[in-house]
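If your schedule permits, I should be very grateful for your opinion on a structural question. I have a record of one protein: its chain in single-letter code and its fold written as discrete structure tokens. Kindly check, if you would, that the fold set down in the tokens agrees with what the sequence suggests. I remain grateful for any guidance, and I place the record below:

***
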Amino acid sequence: MVGHLNFILRLTIWFLLTADFSVANIIIGVSIALLLPGGKTARQSLKDWLRVLGEIIVAIPQAYIEAFEIILRPHNHEDITMEQVKPRRTPGLIFLDIFLITFTPKTIVLKYHEAGWYEVHRVQRRKKT
């Protein structure tokens, strides 16, 4: 089942990159999704995939809320923080984690460190002291 999710993720990325749903492009996308190597053989759990997909669904309204906050009350303070990658993450789940962080307007992943850390840029309202 998780193998199917990897295939769907790869195909979705292909369609997002090409924005073309012609028969030829679908055939090329399916071929590329099947030919890409599997990567690490770390054990993936369907539970982890469903949890991340649920977090992405929750992030959609959060992204709109954050966009309106930035428009109505400008954020003029920036921070760069390090966030640790959750344990036993496969490359597909790491990609979805990075997508989730970058999807909201106030945060973006600047770099993924192989040691298991994300470098995250965040904008915030300056707290009055």
